[in-house]
Amino acid sequence: MARSKRYLLKCTLxxxxxxIVWPVTGNLKRExxxxxxxxxxxxxxxxxxxxxxxDLLLRTxxxxxxxxxxxxxxxxxxxxxxxxxxxxVVNRANGLSFSDCxxxxxxxxxxxxxxDPWMDSFDGFLxxxxxxxxxxxxxxxxxxxxxxxxxxxxxxxxxxxWERLNENLRAxxxxxxxxxxxxxxxDLEYLRHFTGISNIKLLPSQCLYVxxxxxxxxxxxxxGPSRLSKGAEAILNGDKGLFRFLADFRxxxxxxxxxxxxxxxxxxEFLDLAQHQGILIMxxxxxxxSLFEYYAxxxxxxVPTLDLLVRWQIEYQIMDELSWNCVxxxxxxxxxxxxxxxxxxxxxPNNVLDPAALRYxxxxxxxxxxxxxxxxxxxxxxxxxxxxxxxKQVSAVMRKHKVKEMRKTLKLWETVMRPILRRKKQPSPxxxxxxxxxxxxxxxxxxxxxxxxxxxxxxxx
Length: 461
Known about the structure:
Blueprint: H1 2-27, H2 31-35, E1 38-44, H3 47-57, E2 66-72, H4 102-113, H5 117-120, E3 124-127, E4 144-148, H6 159-174, E5 179-182, H7 185-195, E6 201-202, E7 221-224, H8 230-237, H9 242-247, E8 258-260, H10 261-264, H11 270-274, E9 279-281, H12 289-296, E10 301-304, H13 306-316, H14 324-327, H15 355-362, E11 374-376, H16 379-388, H17 391-422, H18 438-448, H19 454-458
Helix pairs in contact: 13-15
């Protein structure tokens, strides 16, 4: 009987060890389980980059409890059901430029949300398109994650506005709880060139939400991305264009067919694209979310060589979104501000019609960085490589690189999120003065970012 009691006691102690002690010691290794779920707010004008980050966080044990609340101001937000519904102060009309008086809007945002429990529930803020949106959070004293997917001065096209943004970005990057990054090497170097900031991370988009892989069953090669610039249309359809070149081989069964995505599909799924032999890329930009998606599907991509792309840019302005000057129909203009004195680059990235500047800066484009891309010098070279290249082997190279990049990027995101996971919950800030007193807001911004020049904060219209 005594032996039975001892056995029962032993089992009871073992039960307690397994179900009480183990969870406590186990949780000590998982900081987010102690501190509770974390939330970041994203107010954005592009549905792609934030969708990618939300998906990435779910793929690592350390970060899967971090939730991003997506209050999108994008014109495509309805496609993913993320449209902002109850935002105050910031909207589609003022969210990129912050209107004519940025500091006034930033203070108005603080007045509207400084004591709002909903805003206080966030542990940090994510800004992508555009990273300048993070300026509205500088008084809140919480970690900021800024990831530029394109030229970062979007909405700040005037000289003064651009320079004020640079001052704020330098102060933000100086705070170790914050992260300044780009999702591509071109924009990382572009940021460094104009701001002088050295601690910029490369956080490439992975687009792992893409639910299809390369399965070539359709004969056509696609021409992408789905939006082709006017320059690309002229190149393809001109007297010396691809379609005229292919027409000379009419009747030959061996010559491949190239079809623009939008001509073949008014609406498509990822699987539709993955069933084609490959994609001819006619880029309107150096970094495009669609290219990240194609690479995630491991679809072979055919890209013009650097020399050919430079010629197309000069003659046709194929990349009509290479600079904001081009977007604003002024491709011949150069940068409104000089390079930072510490920049390692000696040529202007916004001199987008100059052969030397183009050859220097375009080498940082995504499609000149990734392994597995097939480059062609002319139409004959394109057709020849489309017919002779082992495309399945190319796809395998892309797949192998993608796995390596995914693991590396997930580790980087764990590092980026560490200050947010470690941060202790703090009570809502208390207003010491009325909402009409600018001095209180200015003091908060300066307290959080003491390296800022005072005039950058005190400049009101």
